[in-house]
Structure formats: C-alpha cells, structure tokens
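Figure 2 data, in text form.
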Amino acid sequence: MSSSPSPTARVGRLAVLAVGLCWLAVLFDGLDMFIYGSVLPHMLEQKALGLTPDQAGDLGSYATFGMLVGALTAGTVADRIGRKKLMVGCVALFSLASGLCAMAGSVGVFGLGRTLAGIGLGGLLPTAISMVCDYAPRGRGALTIGMLMTAHHAGGILSAYVALWVVEPLGWRAAFWFCVLPLLFVPVLARFLPESLSFLVAKGRSEEAGELARRHEVALPAAPTDGQATTGRWNSLVSLFRGGEWSQTLLYWLASFGGLLLVYGVATWLPTLMRGEGYNLGSALTFVVLFNLGGIVGMLVAGRASDRFGAPRISAIWFALTAAGVFLLSVHMPLALTFGVVFLTGVFLNSAQTMIYATVSIRSRPENRATAVGWTSGMGRFGAVFGPWLGGQLLAANKGDWGFTAFALAGLSSMVFIGIAALRGSKRTAGSDSEQKLVGAH
C-alpha cells in the first residue's frame, strides 16, 4: 500500500499554507487599521500635533481614502502581475507608512503617513480574499473567507492592548513604531506564499503553474475555455457589467458603501464616543476588544451559515441586526448590558460586510476575481472615507449620540441593497449550484 498522502490531505496542506500566511498578513492589516482609533482618545487628550476632533475625523478619512485608492487599483494590478507580489508590496507599504506616522511632526505629515498606509491596507484585503478563495475546500468558500477575516479583528484586539500597554508609558508614537514590526514578515511572505494557481493558469503561465502544482502535489485548475480570460487592461472590470451582471455589481457596490461607512465609522470613533460617555481609557478600550471578539465569532458563524443558506441572505439579516445594535449604543444602559450590545454588534457588523465580499468572490470567475472583490471593496471605501469624517463633524458639534443613529441608517441601507441582490440571485435557476461549483473548482 502506498504511503503517499491522499489528494484531500495534499490539498489541505496547501490550503493551510496559503490561508495561514494570508491570515498573518491580514492580522497586521487589522492592527494597522485599528491602531489609530485605539490611540485617538490619548492623542486628543494630550492635544498631540495640535489635534482637534474635526481634524481627527479628517485623519481617519485620509486612511480610508488611501484604502479606496488601494482597493480600486490593487484588484486590477493583482489580476495582471500576481496576487503574491501585490500582497508582499502592500505589507511593506503600510508597515513603512506607520514609521512615517511615528516620526510625524505635524498633522500634514501624519495624514500623509495614514494615506500611504491606507493604500497598502486597501490593496491587501481584497487580494488576500481572492487568494484564499482559490484554495478554499469545496463548498466552504464563505467559511474560509470568514476564517481569514477573523485575523482582521484579532488585529483590532491587538491594537487595543498595544494602546493600553504602550501608549500610557511611552506615548502615542510608540504604538505606530510597533506597527512597523510587520516589515519583518515581508521576507517570510515572499519566500513561502504560493502564487494563485488560477491566476497562473488564466495568464497562460502553464509551466510555472505546473511546477507549483507538482511541488505541492495538487491538481491544476482548468484553463478558461470560453474567451473570458483577461486580454486587456480593463477587460476584468468591463466583464463585471457584461450581460445581466451590471445590476448585481451595482447592488454589491451600494451595499458595500453603507457597510464600510458603518464599519469604519464605528471602528474609528467607538473608543472616543464611549470615553465621552464617562468611561476611562481602559474601559473605552474594552469596548474595542469586545467589538472585535464579536467580529471573530461572527465571521465563523456567518461563514458556516452563508455556505448553507447563501451569503447575500445572511448579510442582509446581519445588517438589520447590526442597525439595531448600533442604535442601542445611543441609549444609556447599565455597563454590563452595554458590553453585551457592543459584543453582539461586533458579531453582526463585521461579518455582514465580509459576506458581501464572500458573495462577490465566490460568484466571480477566477481570472477576474481580484478585480471584482477589489472594486466592490473600493466602491465601499467611499463610505469608509465618509464615516470617520461624519463622526468627527458630529463630535465637534457636540452631537456624538447622533453618530450612532447615522451609522444605524447606513446599516439599514446596506440591508436593503444586499437584500435585493439576494432576491434577484434566488431567481437564477442554478444560482446556488453555480456558487458551489466555483468554490470547488478553485
């Protein structure tokens, strides 16, 4: 009897390698993204760089504007040069940009650092999602993406502890120096992360794909046979609007806009708003930990539910529950109850947005998957830019409680758009089956 591992075991080892490295990259992405919100209460209290609440909102928007640019360009670039190269470049960029923030002597330089970091952050996430979707086990695409996104919220939890343990004794700059450490991960990522097999096949690099497949003892995905392979710079983007796809694409973009307005508005301002309600820095950061713990739980629950019932349906339900939870945060409640609401809001909010990405990634063709996810994420970044700015304007006008209401309305709008997408998708005769075939084939 042969002692060689089974094909299933072989695929499993390659999936663990790809997903594991992507998980670590997204962990550092989450740390860099959430660190600003975690140290913001301290920066405002100490008037660091002469920072005011409205300027703080602008700075939050600079990062999300950079993420918009990164997300819009990274998908197309990744589908052209490779997802591995782009991921390596993105980690290096946001790590070095954090060093610029740590050295900043003015709000302008700090804002430049956050913008550059945002470009790297925005480019990494859709690329990592498309990468792990390539290696997801059959019928487990949404769950695999959900598992990947737990890293983002683990990074958020880490940011709260960095702020708690580093900022008080060493100052806010030390927190951003800590965020330079992922630069040490770049050589590891460059050495061990495998390139996407479907990308290599779609680009006609069959020899390179074959060598990679032989090294890991896995089968090559089928080459495109219907003329859908990318042949021009904008072909991947144009393909999102061909036939009847344009309406679904727009619905996903609109849902992503409201979802990311909600995600980044809450992520940026939750500690500050809670501290404004009378909590000390330690208690306010506890809300960040609970919010991201909820995100981790939510990703796993939503991933399994989405693989069974459909990611668009789960996303719509989750957005409705998120809107209710965010609105409740504007109501004064006992501390224990507030903790519970923050945790549950984290459960539903973060995974609701991720299931939009899961839907797009699973239903996209392998040769333009990164473009589809990247542009869905990129269109959502307009909401991500607007959310922190809106929170800063409301706080500067002493109307912080209205921020929760505005964010709740954004959640309701995303529920409507993704709900319409779910209803339209359910009318497609083989919609559910085609999702599973896409996951299984790549």
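Caption note: The radius of gyration is 21 Å.
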